[in-house]
Design a protein that fits this description.
The complex is a heterodimer of chains A (160) and B (187). Chain A has 160 residues and is mainly α. In chain A, 64% of the residues lie in helices and 0% in strands. The two termini of chain A are 26 Å apart. In chain B, helix 4 crosses helix 9. In chain B, strands 1-2 form a two-stranded antiparallel ribbon. Chain B is built from nine helices and two strands. In chain B, 60% of the residues lie in helices and 3% in strands. The relative contact order of chain B is 0.18. With 187 residues, chain B is mostly helical. Classes of the chains: A mainly alpha (160), B mainly alpha (187). Chains A and B meet through helix 3, helix 7, helix 8 and helix 9 of A and helix 3, helix 8 and helix 9 of B. Chain B: GO terms for molecular function: peroxiredoxin activity. Chain B: It comes from Salipiger abyssi. Chain B: This is Putative peroxidase-related enzyme. Chain B: It holds the Pfam family CMD.
């Protein structure tokens, strides 16, 4: 089985048939499952009013915090200037996007601090309950991806 | 040394969402289909009904979660539970920490959990100590896990396939914690 197009192999910068690729092939359900999740959070059939561009921009903002440039490249930089600010880790002028930026930084960096007032802030900024759920899944997915890539990178040198 | 630590028994917590969950009678066909993925379809939990607002991600994540925590072979269940617990403690998710501490105690006895909840990480058995140290470092933002953590795991006899399973159990709880803790409260 070949996983050359999957986001984690791309983040690891590994080729088909490499030792790490063969290790990953022991758990095909993890590889396929993560790819299905990537599609579900970035390009779902029903986007709930959150465009693929917005989703990719938010993913890129979170991925920036993981310290893996190849992982960041998996989230294309948007052409829309406000979304580009969101993606780059800057503060958008648009109040709703700014609220989303602050929320995602808090969830990614210090999830323990999250409280009900943070959800109220998102609702006040105009996000619906289904949108908040979809955004929460997207943020958390990217945090998952960062940790899988970081951990597997440590296994590039196989057991001596 | 661990004899001095009193054994604890954790009581289950109840999780309540901050946001209104999907009501079954209002659910769309897609949401109803998504909620069938739950292990016990008789009574759909508030957690499942909250996440069913976005049925696509709910289904995809649940399939991945079940693969990571319950796949045959590889790392034993107790060690996967300990990885989940380590992530949950760092991420401040009381509910997940409670569930997976109790799972670990059920599988392996209360010694490790009692030490952790007494703040006596120093008293853990070596393998559990290596797992906790790795879980904490991989959960940090950005992750700080390094070669020394992996070397410590290998020293306890863990092979790379098992470490791969551990990485995924820690990472999937980085995800689960970021839903359960921000979206509700537990008591």
């Amino acid at each position: 089985m070949s996983f050359s197009n999957d986001a984690i192999n791309a983040a690891l910068g590994i080729a088909d048939g490499s030792a790490l690729d063969r290790l990953r092939a022991l758990r095909p359900e993890f590889v396929a499952g993560a790819e299905a999740c990537r599609a579900a959070v970035l390009t779902p059939d029903e986007d709930l009013g959150l465009s693929p561009e917005l989703r990719a921009a938010l993913g890129r903002r979170v991925a920036n915090g993981g310290g893996n440039a190849r992982l960041v490249e998996g989230y294309p930089l948007p052409t829309d200037p406000e979304l580009a600010l969101l993606a780059a880790g800057d503060m958008p002028d648009d109040p709703a996007l700014a609220a989303l930026a602050r929320h995602s930084d808090m969830i990614a960096n210090s999830a323990a601090k999250a409280g009900p007032q943070d959800l109220a802030t998102l609702q006040d900024a105009g996000f619906t309950v289904p949108q908040i759920i979809a955004l929460s899944e997207l943020l958390a997915y990217t945090c998952y991806q960062i940790r899988v890539a970081h951990g597997l990178n440590l296994l590039k040198e196989p057991r001596p | 040394m661990t004899d001095a630590i009193p054994q604890i028994a954790l009581k289950p917590l109840t999780w309540t969402p901050h946001l209104p969950p999907v009501e079954i009678e209002d659910a769309t066909p897609r949401q109803l289909e998504a909620m069938k993925v739950t292990p016990s379809a008789k009574k759909v939990s508030p957690y499942v009904r909250t996440l069913a607002h976005d049925p696509d991600s709910y289904v995809a994540r649940t399939v991945l979660f079940n693969a990571i925590m319950y796949a045959e072979g590889g790392l034993n269940r107790a060690d996967r539970e300990l990885g989940a617990l380590g992530a949950s403690l760092v991420n401040g998710c009381r509910y997940c920490a409670n569930v997976h501490a109790r799972q670990h105690a059920r599988l392996k006895g209360a010694e490790t959990i009692s030490a952790l909840f007494a703040g006596r990480g120093d008293a853990l058995p070596p393998r559990d100590g290596a797992i906790m140290a790795f879980a904490e470092a991989l959960t940090a933002t950005p992750p700080t896990a390094g070669e020394t953590h992996v070397a410590a795991l290998r020293e306890t006899g863990m092979d790379d396939a098992e470490i791969q399973d551990l990485i995924h159990s820690i990472a999937i709880f980085g995800w689960a914690n970021r839903l359960m803790h921000p979206l509700g409260h537990s008591d």
